[in-house]
Write a structure and sequence with these properties.
Order of helices and strands: HHHHHHHEEEEHHH
Helix content: 40-55%
Protein name: ABC1 family-domain-containing protein
Distance between the termini: 41 Å
Radius of gyration: 20 Å
Organism: Tribonema minus
Oligomer: single chain
Structural class: alpha+beta
Number of helices: 10
Length: 200
Amino acid sequence: MLPVLLSWLALLSTWFRDRVWYPLLVRCIASSGAAFIKWGQWSSTRPDMFPEALCRALSTLHSNAPVHDAAHTRARVEAMFGGRSVEDVFDWFDMTPMASGSIAQIHKAILAGRLVAVKVRHPQVAEKMAMDFRIMKWLASVTDATPALRWMNLGPSMEQFGHTMGAQTRLDVEARHLILFQRNFKSWPECSFPVVRGRT
């Protein structure tokens, strides 16, 4: 809400917009949920739609995403292996994530003597993203109707973003894409992709 209240200052002052308003907007997006973070990440790559200064500010959302707790990781991994404990399946499993994004986080582990990366979705991320997107569409309509914010052109960007958002939460789709990349680039030894193991 604060970025909306200060939008008139952002419209009048380039210095305020670049130094204060954009960072404030990014902080609000970062604390608003997975779909908002994902939209911010996507928008940071679209200087054709948004000012370059805003894209630079939004690019900070590509790192430092929140992590979920070890209990959720353990429960999801054990469910995927038919209830077998993490210790029974893996030679070693690091419950501290090595990285976290808006959809999932990555854990290092050793499986059958090989170092692997285990990707675990955040709790209820698909449901939360669907709800977030409904809120985002409403906010976009309000923003596009507000003269001081109309320049952001959020409505069209939300429509484009919405077409790809659903698939972002499907790790099985991501795994199939990796397999397809491996097949298509098998004649290019300089190109490599993660090798998918286990269920897809």
